[in-house]
# Entry
Amino acid sequence: MKHMTIDMPIVSECLVSECAYNVDMNCHARAITVGNSLHAGCDTFCSGSSHTKAATRMAGVGACKSTDCRFNEDLECMTDSIRVGRVGQEVNCMTYSPR
Ligand code: SF4
Ligand code: SF4
# Structure
């Protein structure tokens, strides 16, 4: 299989084990979307009992709408990798850092 090199930050760890894309504390979505105007949440979070089978794939950060994060440039995340975790009821980008 041919692989494209897409310049995206990776999701190095996600602690939200109940998400359907989570296998062994890693995200296996192709790419996630982070953020709305209120907080840097994982928009791709999908609660479900059946989990993705594409367990070798590493997720990228496709887009981020948290423009008040210092890693955000023109609605994209510019850091190398992010971590995702739960904060209360929210599923958040833990790498978020206010400007
Ligand atoms: S990063 Fe988001 S989509 Fe990926 S496993 Fe975690 S909560 Fe789910
Ligand atoms: S580190 Fe900042 S810019 Fe990158 S995904 Fe998280 S909140 Fe968005």
